[in-house]
């Protein structure tokens, strides 16, 4: 039997040699429907999409912390929603921005930078990726302070699984260098990336975005390094920042691809979050027409089921913001409800889910309005030419005009815009407060930027949250603590960062947040 088997094997081998058994071998054994690589342009689009808090990553951190710290949106509820409302560390929510950006955004954008840096045919994509990488790292370092930077997102590329933490000072200096080089390196005469989800490959708009982001990064350093700040602010203006709302860095949504903050609030959290009294009162006191675009109140509602359209009012006169310092029990006492003239906690004003937080509402990263207001501050400091008053007026107007992009019902008539600007002219005597308070309004729903600019500028001048069980030693939360998971997997580097920066608490200030 063995001899017969050997004979058959030999015969088959001979036949294969004669007939060429390896013909089309590679083609037959290649899976043509299971790609092993992705086009860098598509990977970059994924990085941009993920930075908009797709699938809820970071949404609860904004709702429970950033919006509450700057006193624009607040919840009276504790447990999984505790955060800035109680000035407490909720370890379920403080790591969310970290987890999203390191696991998703940076893993992708670092890969794009690595794949395109030596490709002469993809120079524009390379520089676009550097700009988005800088933007992503700004959000992370502004939120947590010292973070993995030079060795970050290198697990697949260099097998670095325990990245070192760089100081925020080093990170910011490198971010500014990257933005300077990448913005200048973009060239409309070279190949464009038409599949780019942010600007459709428009190199001019990418340049303006890069220089506007450089302006923002430069202004972060006004308290710790004004010389470097002024240097890069000047470079940004010379390079060319955003010229109109058409240049806004915005993620557009549809009925199928939703704005996730809107999705979150229209579902399980609909009755849990309310506009905070300091924000509503500021808009209301100043007859700001944006209040009618932003707010809705279900007048007289005594429970979630009573928040129905027949009770809904966007009339600025009836809006009542939820005060700071209460939980769902203390705010529901008869004395408190009577003081604010509401029937229940469900009767306070909320973000309008039919205008600025429709499911297809856009989400803004960097805007012309914000850029003009930063230019107003730079001009007021004497760093750039031009009129601070002119920049200021253009910034306020741009944000009011931007409201129309949410929904036609949110659009502000020209007469209302002009009336507001006439009634609230630029005041050089209180310029920094006025500019940065308007920046607070213009950055509504942009959690990371609201939190960062509030710490940088000290405005608006908010009263501290008086909730009695506060865990912080400062008047306001200054940063998010590192995730517990980092202590488990990267303890040595975490400990080095804490030793350099300060305790891993809500009260520790990041490098540029100098008293």
Automatic annotation (TrEMBL):
Signal peptide (from-to): none
Protein name in UniProt: SusD-like starch-binding protein associating with outer membrane
The species this protein was found in: Larkinella arboricola
């Amino acid at each position: 039997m063995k001899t017969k088997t050997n004979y058959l094997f030999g015969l088959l081998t001979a036949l294969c040699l004669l007939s060429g058994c390896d013909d089309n071998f590679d083609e037959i054994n290649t899976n043509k429907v299971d790609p092993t690589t992705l086009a860098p342009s598509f990977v970059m689009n994924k990085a941009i999409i993920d930075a908009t808090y797709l699938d809820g990553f970071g949404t609860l951190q904004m709702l429970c912390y950033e919006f509450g710290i700057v006193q624009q949106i607040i919840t009276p509820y504790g447990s999984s929603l505790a955060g800035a409302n109680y000035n407490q560390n909720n370890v379920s929510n403080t790591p969310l921005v970290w987890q999203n950006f390191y696991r998703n955004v940076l893993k992708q954008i670092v890969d794009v930078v690595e794949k395109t840096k030596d490709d002469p045919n993809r120079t524009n994509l390379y520089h676009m990726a550097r700009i988005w990488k800088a933007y992503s790292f700004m959000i992370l370092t502004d939120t947590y302070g010292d973070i993995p930077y030079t060795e970050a997102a290198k697990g697949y590329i260099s097998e670095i699984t325990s990245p070192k933490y760089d100081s925020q000072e080093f990170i910011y200096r490198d971010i500014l260098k990257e933005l300077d080089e990448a913005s200048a390196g973009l060239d409309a005469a070279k190949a464009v990336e038409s599949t780019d989800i942010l600007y459709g490959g428009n190199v001019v708009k990418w340049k303006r975005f890069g220089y506007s982001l450089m302006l923002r990064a430069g202004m972060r350093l006004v308290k710790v390094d004004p010389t470097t700040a002024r240097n890069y602010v000047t470079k940004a203006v010379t390079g060319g920042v955003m010229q109109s709302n058409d240049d806004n860095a915005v993620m557009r949504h549809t009925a199928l691809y939703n704005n996730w903050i809107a999705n979150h609030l229209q579902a399980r959290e609909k009755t849990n979050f309310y506009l905070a009294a300091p924000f509503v009162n500021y808009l209301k006191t100043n007859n700001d027409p944006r209040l009618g675009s932003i707010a809705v109140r279900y007048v007289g509602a005594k429970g979630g089921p009573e928040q129905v359209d027949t009770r809904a009012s966007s009339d600025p006169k009836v809006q009542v913001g939820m005060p700071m310092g209460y939980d769902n029990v203390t705010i529901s006492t008869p004395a408190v409800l009577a003081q604010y003239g509401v029937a229940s906690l469900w009767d306070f004003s909320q973000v309008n889910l039919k205008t600025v937080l429709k499911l297809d509402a856009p989400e803004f990263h960097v805007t012309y309005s914000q850029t003009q207001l930063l230019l107003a501050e730079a001009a007021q400091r004497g760093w750039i030419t031009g009129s601070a008053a002119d920049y200021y007026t253009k910034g306020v107007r741009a944000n009011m005009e931007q409201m129309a992009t949410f929904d036609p019902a949110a659009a502000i008539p020209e007469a209302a815009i002009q009336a507001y600007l006439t009634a609230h002219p630029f005041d050089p005597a209180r310029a920094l407060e006025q500019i940065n308070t308007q920046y607070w309004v213009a950055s509504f729903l942009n959690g990371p930027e609201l939190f960062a600019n509030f710490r940088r500028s000290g405005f608006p001048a908010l009263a501290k949250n008086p909730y009695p069980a506060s865990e912080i030693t400062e008047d306001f939360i200054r940063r998010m603590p590192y995730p517990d998971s980092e202590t488990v997997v990267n303890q040595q580097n975490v400990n080095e960062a804490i030793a350099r920066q300060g305790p891993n608490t809500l009260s520790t200030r990041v490098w540029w947040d100098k008293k």
